[in-house]
């Protein structure tokens, strides 16, 4: 049996739209419920208390799954293109996929273990998700340049590298400022101790998160000319 998916561009498109909705909906509920201040909370702050915690956990877990599927299709796409062009080592492509899947696992941890319930596990998951995500998009940007001009335009490569650079730059102060926050809480107000560190770290966190979203948005065009065939063999005893 042979199943063919002729246009897989809907996968990154769904990932981008679903992830954006996850952030926006959980943020809106958290603000309307009075659980967080409207001015730049941490992303995790918007998914800590019910009812938004249920929405956040469910939607981010789906985003992690969609991210893993997108990364795997991207891996297959590069492998197929590499058959004729030989622009990147297969081991490098596999390493990029593994790093990406590690980031998706981190997202699952963030969605499952709330910030106030199990802060240490949540923080490890967030560090894995953001750190692996930044490495993944940087590797994909480099691979994109190697595939030019046959498989990518330099304009798209420049966009990807710019997003990667901004995400990398934002990731470092995100960690540095977060490490200076001495308390774990979600109801921050201006003037409190460590509020400035929290505020700056949160801005960087949102920057990195939407950097990932905009990066995967650039995959849609590549996926439009790629189809996936799934072969299933049935053996009769």
Automatic annotation (TrEMBL):
Domain CWH43-like N-terminal: from-to ranges: 9-225
Keyword terms of this UniProt record: Membrane, Transmembrane, Transmembrane helix
Residue stretches spanning the membrane: 54-73, 94-112, 124-143, 155-177, 197-220
GO process annotations (BP): regulation of autophagy
Pfam family, one: Frag1
Range of residues in the leader sequence: none
Lineage: superkingdom: Eukaryota
Keyword Isomerase among UniProt keywords: no
Membrane topology: Multi-pass membrane protein
One GO cellular component, as annotated: lysosome
Subcellular location: Endomembrane system
Listed InterPro entries: CWH43_N, DRAM/TMEM150_Autophagy_Mod
Family affiliation: Belongs to the DRAM/TMEM150 family.
Name of the protein in question: DRAM1 protein
Species of provenance: Oxyruncus cristatus (sharpbill)
